[in-house]
Amino acid sequence: MSLLTRLFGEKKKTAAIAKERLQLIIAREHVDGKSSPDFLPALQKELLDVISKYVKIAPEDIKVQLERQDNLEILEVNIILNETSSSRAQ
Amino acid sequence: MRIVVVTSGKGGVGKTTTSAAFASGLALRGFKTAVIDFDVGLRNLDLIMGCERRVVYDFVNVVQGEAKLTQALIKDKHVDTLHILPASQTKDKDALTEEGVEKVIKELEAMGFDYVVCDSPAGIERGALMALLFADEAIVVTNPEVSSVRDSDRILGILQSKSRRAIEGRDPVKEHLLVTRYSAKRVEEGEMLSYKDIQELLRVPLLGVIPESDAVLHASNQGVPAIHLKGTDVAEAYADVVSRFLGEDKPLRFVSYEKPSLIKRIFGGT
Questions:
Q1: Contact pairs from chain A to chain B, CB under 8 Å
Q2: In chain B, alpha helices (H)
């Protein structure tokens, strides 16, 4: 061991690094497994049904997507109302 | 009858070694036990059990109705109450069907077997899925190493979604963690994940820890299940595993490392 590492403390043990990496990857894979985007089409259809009760809307006017940033998940729903229907809704 | 799958996701972690030792241990306790090799195309349980020259018919022959189960079962040469059902070496890996496997398992039950140990192939494909499909309990074999731990996590997810128990909404498969190829010395030195780390990551009750040992190679060289190598730490660790599986309270062994004292280091000694 070099004098420098002796002076500034030991390097992190590799087992600790392994544990940390596994904690992250396992947590992430659990999230992927559970909220796999296969429910998105169903969600989109149900949203369409509900909104259609009040506003005339085409299926392609609803966009549903799941985005992931680090350990944050964002469910993004975009609903575009065209001119006539939006004026009716107001 | 209880069906126990020995699985891991990753290859080479000790599934077949464990299946052979564990099934032998159950049989030594007097339970009528069958151990089935699900690794169609790459059979190895017969070699580990030392019965490779007595294989005439195999699992796939029975599933496809080409042989009777009684013709394909091989009686173990060490323990009377143990029988081996070898995998096919030549057939396609898709030769195992759900109905076929179910038929064999029902027949084993009718023959009065207490335990069926299913030795799963690596991976998450058909053979592995068939091995875990009917399981009541699962032994997840894991090495203290990142890829093995991750694959074990994956296979646990599959047990919880694709086993018959999961599909039919019955009580879930009872999971056990078995850490193999463990080096207490390297754990002590911070070079290897500890069994506590692995348990914390996978959140499965620990069934045992099998130390890394030369005895495992000696056992496979001779075709003798490791549990029979009297006096070795591996044999004792597997015997403990069987005891714990049967509900007995056995403290963990071979998990701590004593640093050799200065005097020992200077003057040698074992």
A1: 36
A2: 15-28, 45-49, 59-63, 69-72, 98-110, 126-133, 146-162, 164-167, 184-188, 195-202, 215-222, 233-245, 262-267
As a whole number of Å, the end-to-end CA separation of chain B is 46
**Could you tell me the two tokens for B210?**
């099998």
Q: Spell out the residues 6+ positions from residue B74 whose beta carbon is closer than 8 angstroms to its own.
A: B46, B51, B54, B55, B83, B84, B85, B86
On whether the CB atoms of residues B57 and B87 are closer than 8 A, the answer is: no
B221-240: pLDDT as tens digits: 999 999 999 999 999 999 99
Determine the distance in angstroms separating the CA of A10 from the nearest CA of chain B, rounded to an integer: 12
Hey, how many other C-beta atoms are within 10 angstroms of the C-beta on B140? Answer: 26
Q: A33-83: per-residue pLDDT in tens? A: 655 567 778 888 888 899 889 888 888 888 888 777 766 778 888 888 876
Candidates B97, B83, B168; CA nearest to B130 is B97
Q: How far, CA to CA in Å, does B236 sit from each of B147, B206, B252?
A: 27, 16, 11
What is the value of pTM for the model shown?
A: 0.82
A9 to chain B, any CB pair closer than 8 A? The answer is no
Residue B150 Cα, gap to closest chain A Cα (Å):
7
